[in-house]
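User: My advisor asked me to double-check a structure prediction for Origin recognition complex subunit 3 before group meeting. I don't want to rely on an old file, so could you generate it fresh from this sequence?
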Amino acid sequence: MFTAEIKRQLISTMDATNSVSKGVFVFKNGATRVKGRKKMQRCNSLLDASTTKQHWFRMYKTHWERLRQMILKMQTNSYGKIIDDLLKFIESCQQTEMYEGFLPTAALLTGINQTDHLSQFEKLAEDIHNNTLSIVVLLPSRDGSSLKQAVETIVAKCIHGQQTDTAEEKPLRKNQLNLDVLHAWYTETHINCRVKPKLTVIIPDFELFNPLVLQDLILILDSYATTLPFVLVFGVATAISTIHNVLPYHVTSKIKLSIFQSEPSGTNLNKILEEVLLTPFCPFHLSGKVFKLLLDIFLFYDFSVNGFIQGFKFAFLDHYFQQPINALSAIIDDADDLQAIINELTSAELEQIRQLPSFRPYVESLQNPQEVIDILTNDDQFKRSLTPIIMKVHNYWFTFHCALQILHTLVSDLPKAPLGRQLRELYCQCVSCDVTELPEFKECMHLLSFLSKEEMLLKIKQVLDVVLQWVDRNDQLNIEGCLVYEVAPLEAMANGLAILSEELAVASHEQIDVDTKQDKQTLLSSQMGRQELREKLLTAAKHAKSESAATRAVGKIMDYFLGNIFQRHLHPPTGKKVPLIELFLYNDSSFIRRHIIGAPRAAVHTALNNPQFYTQCECCTLDESSCIIPSLPDLSIAYKLHLECGRMINLFDWLQAFRTVIDDVNSDGAEQQIDPVIQARFTRAVAELQFLGFIKTSKTKTDHVTRLTW
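Assistant: Sure, here is a fresh prediction for Origin recognition complex subunit 3 from the sequence you gave:
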């Protein structure tokens, strides 16, 4: 029963809220907000103090921050030219008479799924505001769902965005924001200005904008073009034809369009790979399977450069998190930096290094037994021996990537490109297997041997430019203090190719007869076995009986490429040839696939069939996956019961089974009245299963539903 005081408050409340319509009314009753709020306790996440202080995390953070800065610098340089051209366009809009009677309009073709589409245009708006005499308005599609809202957004950002914090003028109300008010404010504010600012309206997501609203907005802005100097900038993610499809002729005739093309996503990704990620200056490398997985997601799913970078970052973090010893693959400046990292390793971590698969071949290759004993038993001696081993791995990646660039220079423009035209395609093959054993590689070498003398000399010049570029890059690193890489192998490559190119340059095309008499005497020798004779005959059949000096010189060059460059420096990163390569190479493709490529159906089935997998509550623990207990969520019970049915499910039988599980005590007697609460819970569970797509209503039998998944 209510007390008299509560009744009195209710009567007074009803008197104060007499209304024709029913509603919900809030009465504070003099309550005030508590001044001192209780602070929320900090959540102990993965990145707590105990994690961030660990050596592997500090190495990861330093390494990734350096890579991120390199990527950001490269993207800033690539976008710089297009932004400069756009700024020149906006500045010149009112200095020429070519835009009289038209709205100056720029279409910036960004390509789909750039690194961050909206942030690019926020940066563009900031650059336009800082480098041109313009009032900039960013008008995304969410702020222009109707013509009234679009006009109000433009006027509000133009007027309120220019008012200083010390201004005493009250902001205009929303119903006062129209283009007449903007015209009056613009005239009054800039009446004494010799050069008046332009009103630049940027629409970053042209495809998402309501076409009818956009058409009306352009026509209205054009009617004010004689008094208000509007400039439009469209952000188009697809193609220029989209503008002509959205805007009819009577609208496009009001604008004068200039097109600015930014780099496509594929080109942007190639630059990031070739200049940052696929270089020895990023010691962390992906195996062929992992790299191909991230590349396939980019090419066949979303064309998102940011998605590829985040996938690379995820693999990078997992590589360091799995084993702290992987911190040895961090970027270093010299052997002293590496030795400092090694000195922080514990005995357990040193034992983990000894357990690596590539460590055993290295130990077996040592000739001194005492050295083997010291490495296996003495931690101090092992720490001292780790420095030259890891430095060799760094130099392996240095020569590997140089040889990879040389191979790309040679084969990227061959007919049909047997090995591919992009550096990323060559990397996938070279890091996965011995590329010199592939049929595609042999086909490329065969095609290169058909090049003319002049074409081969041009190829050699391009290869020498690549080698000298790597040498110069290393010299620049030496100036900056990085003393890790050895350029002696590269200098040997350059010297060998220079000698062979000089020999080819002076070689003539005159045919030289081969002395066959001596060959016949060699083949008819009585001391030769059958297998040796067979090989000699096959070799003699392959070589022409007459060849020119130029052909012979080209053959020497191809043999030099194969033996001295590709077979020596482009072998795959395996433990037999490169000790401790596991520290630098990430190859857990199944883990990456499981966490990056979602499997929603499997996740939903797991959540409904075994909720304890996600909730981690003790009340939902199942002895077997097929068990059904009352403490499970209603949706899970209904789902597990529907798995036992055929294609058609009788709703009444389903309800009876559901009641049996929920209320096992009172389930005796089929004719017993069903509790309305249980029926309501069942109805909600069935509706949720229908929403998830597991069942649908049946048109033939109204009391049945059809099962859709098996």
